[in-house]
Amino acid sequence: MAPIALDEGVEVAKPQRSINTKSATEETGEQVRLAARAGKYTSQTSGAAPTYIQANFIVLPSRYAADFRLLCRRNPVPCPLLAESKEVGRWDQLKSWVDGLTGDQIAKDLDLRHDFPKFMVYENGDLTKAHCLNVEAEWTEDHVGFLIGCSYSFENALASAGLIPAHTAHGRNAPMYRTNIPLCPAGIFKHTTYVVSMRPYRRRDVERVREITRPYVATHGEPIDWGWDAVGRLGIQDISQPDYGEAPVAMDGSPLVEGVGADDDELVPVFWGCGVTPQEAIRRVKPEGRVIGHAPGYMIVLDIRDQDIIPKQ
Amino acid sequence: MAPIALDEGVEVAKPQRSINTKSATEETGEQVRLAARAGKYTSQTSGAAPTYIQANFIVLPSRYAADFRLLCRRNPVPCPLLAESKEVGRWDQLKSWVDGLTGDQIAKDLDLRHDFPKFMVYENGDLTKAHCLNVEAEWTEDHVGFLIGCSYSFENALASAGLIPAHTAHGRNAPMYRTNIPLCPAGIFKHTTYVVSMRPYRRRDVERVREITRPYVATHGEPIDWGWDAVGRLGIQDISQPDYGEAPVAMDGSPLVEGVGADDDELVPVFWGCGVTPQEAIRRVKPEGRVIGHAPGYMIVLDIRDQDIIPKQ
Prior knowledge:
The structure is a homodimer.
Chain A: H1 29-37, E1 52-61, H2 65-74, E2 81-85, E3 94-96, H3 103-106, E4 119-123, E5 126-132, E6 143-149, H4 155-160, H5 166-169, E7 176-182, E8 193-202, H6 206-213, E9 225-226, H7 228-233, E10 267-273, H8 277-285, E11 290-294, E12 300-305, H9 306-309
Antiparallel strand pairs in A: 1-6, 1-11, 1-12, 2-3, 2-6, 4-5, 4-11, 7-8, 8-10, 9-10
C-alpha cells in the first residue's frame, strides 16, 4: 500500500459535526461506544457524554509494548496511560493502570476494534488508512491496545465553571499541533516530540483554567504552556494551521488571531499535552509492522467519570 | 543577606577529592551518612558506597509542598520523588514514595539537616549560603524535605559492565548543565527547565549505556539525549563550562572535546535528567521564604541498594 501523506489528509482539516441530535447530557459513555461500534456515531467526540472519561488509542505489535509502557511512565503529561489489552491480542477486556480502578470498571462492554468513531492505520510508520470506521481486519493476535487519557475529559469541568472551550461551543474538533518539545526517550521511542491541544482563553482566566484542569492528572492535567509567546517556544509555525483537528476559533466563531482584546482581556492560546503524541512517535520512529491509532479527536468514551480519576487528597 | 551569584560560585568548579581513604566497596550508605553528619565526609559522593542509592535534596516551606509533589509526578525523569519528611518539620523520619518500600527502609538513622556533605540555602529564590556543612540553624518547623533520585545510583552498574563514567574514574564531580528543555508546570513551578548530568561514552557504547540505565526509573533512568548534536538541542552553550559540578574529562583525564576518535569510536556526550532541577526551579520561580538544597554532587547516601528500586518485571 502506498503511504498517505497526512499533511494533505483529506479529512484532517474538514469540519466534522456531530450526527447525534439528542441532548449530550443524556448520553453515557457506553451509549457513545455502542453507537460508534454500530457505525452510527462517526463524528468527533468533544462534548459527547459529558463527565465520562474519553481516551486516545495506540495499538502496537507486542514486541514494542514494554518500551511503550516506559515511554508513558517517563512522559505522563502527554501520555497518561489509563489501560491496555488484558492480554496480548485481546480487544474485549482491559488491564487498568489507574490506581483503584479495574479494567472492567474502566469499560466493560468493549470492542477496541470498533468503539472509536474513526481509526488510523500505519504500516512501518507510514499512514496507510485514515478515518476508517473499524479495524477488525487490521487487528491481529499479536496486537496490544493502549488507552491514553484525553483532555476532552476535563472540558465539562471547564464549561461548568463558565469556561466552555471555544471549539466545544462551536461543535468543532480541537486544534492540535506538533511541537519541538522532546519526549524523554524509552527504548525504540527516541527523538520524538510532544503533540499539544489548544484552547484559547482570556489572559485573566488562565490561572483559573490551570486550577480547574490541575487535578486531572490522568487526562493531561494542567496546561504545559500559554500565551502568544508560547507559540514560538513550542515551535509552532502558524496557529491557524493545526497539524490535527480543526483550525482554532474565538468564542464568537471567528478565526483566532493575536491582539483581540487588551491586557488581561486579550485572548491567548493555552496548550495541553495531547494523546496524539504516541502517533507522532510512530511517524518519527517508523517501527516495523502494523500500528493502529484513533483518528485525532475521535475518541473512545469510557464507563468511568470525572470523579473516578481525580486522586483523593 | 546579600545573594551569592552562583555563576561566580567559589566552590562550584573547584575540584573536590574524597577524603575517605578506605576502599569504597567497604562503605555502607549509613556509614557515609554518619560521616557526613559528623562533618568528616565533606567531598562529592560519586563512587561513594557503591550499589547504595544516593539522593538529591530540596526543602520547601510547607505551603509549596503540594505543588512540588505534582511537579515531580509530571516530570518523573528529572524529578523522581523517592521520599519526603514523614510530617511537616520532621528531619529524622521519611515517608516513602517508592512502591514496596517504607520510609525506614529507605533510611533509618537519619538527620536531613546534617547527612549531606554540603548544602545550599536560598532566601526568596536567591542563593545566600553555598556549600555549608549543615543546615541545623536554617531548618524550621514549617519545612518539608524531599529526596529525589540521583544518577550516581547507577554508576556502579555502568562500571560493572566495563563502562565506568570518566568523572568517577578520576574522582571528580559530574558536569551538570542548565538546558532549554521545559518542565511541565505544576502550580507555582512554571517556566522552568531541566538540569542534566553528562557522561561521555564512545558512540558504539551508547545503546548499552541506555540499556543498563533504563531500569533505574527511580534515579533518572535512561539518558534523555546523546551525541554532539544534543548539545545544541539542549541549548548548552559550552560543554567545557558546566553550570554545576566539574568540567568534563575523557577517560584519559584530558578535557572532553569533539572529534576524539572516529565514527563509532568517537567519544560523545550522553545526558541524563538531574535532580538539581528543583534548585533551578527555585532560582527561576523565586518563591518567598527559605529553601534548602544539597550542594550539587554532594548527595545523601541511603540504606537501600540497586536491586531495591528496580521495578520487578
